């Protein structure tokens, strides 16, 4: 069961990675105010087989979906990569994330990193520190979420909360 | 329940793709003889969102795993791709496939396309027609599995059946 007031909308934001997937759950009130519900990272062990790591990411997202039952999910999209091999590997983790969201029938949005930065910081070329700082400011936190991946996940959720296009 | 004799080992072979995923289920007797149990393709609709297509692939593999309960699974690996974007997309589908196998706790093997061709045809640079022909010969089929993707899935299973390294 959700512990959020009925007027709040929960958004799960995810910054996918094979080693570290950052996430943030943000609640948005009908008046536009936002608060942080939870953020963190799902880490997978570099020494484990890829199938095991993908499963860890999938089960981590499954657990978040079941615990928070978000109204919407937003996942960072990736258009450029170092090389074909690393893009293929990242795709495995991202596929597991999209699958977990789809299996819970939660509406999905996708934003590129520059889109997220533009929405949260005002420029698509913001640094990780700038993203962390703006996440901290907008959610009135004592400090920026740590590690950066967690802040990035929160930024994706914040970005989506600003778009106003998600189902009400 | 399996309908295969206890002396047979079932191997699921998969050639992953976002649009078309080919598969083959091959039974291997302890004397080394192989027979084809089933082959086919999982198709996804090009107009659907990627998350939906990944889910279709995942559920297709889930269904195969539940129906055949294979002793081992082998999935084709991809080292080269046209570009980073297509590798990322293929990674999504392949991640869903590895996840379905992992969730069923089935031992997983991975072979590159040249490894599969080398095992089944004798050369890593075999054509699709040559792969289809050798699959037909080795499994004593009236004709080569169609489409090519199905034959490729069977070839992956055959390749793994020859390796002898899978658990007995």
Automatic annotation (TrEMBL), chains A, B:
Which Pfam families does this UniProt record tie to the protein? RuvC
Q: Which CDD domains match?
A: RuvC
Tell me yes or no: is RNA-binding among this UniProt entry's keywords: no
Residues binding Mg(2+) 2: 76
Q: What is the E.C. number? A: 3.1.21.10
Q: How does it assemble?
A: Homodimer which binds Holliday junction (HJ) DNA. The HJ becomes 2-fold symmetrical on binding to RuvC with unstacked arms; it has a different conformation from HJ DNA in complex with RuvA. In the full resolvosome a probable DNA-RuvA(4)-RuvB(12)-RuvC(2) complex forms which resolves the HJ.
The family database entries (InterPro entries) matched by this protein are listed as:
RNaseH-like_sf, RNaseH_sf, X-over_junc_endoDNase_Mg_BS, X-over_junc_endoDNase_RuvC
Task: Locate the active site.
Answer: 15, 76, 149
Q: What class of enzyme is it?
A: hydrolase
**Listed cofactors:** Mg(2+)
The protein's job, in short, is: The RuvA-RuvB-RuvC complex processes Holliday junction (HJ) DNA during genetic recombination and DNA repair. Endonuclease that resolves HJ intermediates. Cleaves cruciform DNA by making single-stranded nicks across the HJ at symmetrical positions within the homologous arms, yielding a 5'-phosphate and a 3'-hydroxyl group; requires a central core of homology in the junction. The consensus cleavage sequence is 5'-(A/T)TT(C/G)-3'. Cleavage occurs on the 3'-side of the TT dinucleotide at the point of strand exchange.
Instruction: Give the family, as the similarity comment puts it.
Output: Belongs to the RuvC family.
Protein name per UniProt: Crossover junction endodeoxyribonuclease RuvC
Free-text cofactor note:
Binds 2 Mg(2+) ion per subunit.
């Amino acid at each position: 069961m959700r512990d959020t007031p009925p007027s709040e909308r929960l958004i799960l934001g995810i910054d996918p990675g094979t080693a570290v997937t950052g996430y943030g759950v943000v609640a948005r009130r009908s008046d536009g105010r936002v608060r942080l519900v939870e953020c963190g990272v799902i880490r997978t062990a570099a020494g484990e087989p890829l199938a095991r790591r993908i499963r860890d990411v999938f089960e981590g997202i499954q657990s978040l979906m079941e615990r928070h039952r978000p109204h919407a999910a937003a996942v960072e999209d990736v258009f450029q990569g170092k090389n074909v091999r690393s893009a293929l590997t990242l795709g495995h983790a991202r596929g597991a994330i999209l699958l977990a969201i789809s299996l819970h029938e939660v509406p999905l949005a996708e934003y590129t990193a520059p889109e997220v930065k533009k929405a949260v910081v005002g420029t698509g070329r913001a640094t990780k520190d700038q993203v962390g700082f703006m996440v901290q400011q907008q959610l009135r936190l004592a400090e920026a979420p740590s590690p950066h991946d967690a802040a990035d996940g929160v930024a994706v959720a914040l970005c989506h909360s600003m778009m106003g296009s998600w189902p009400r």
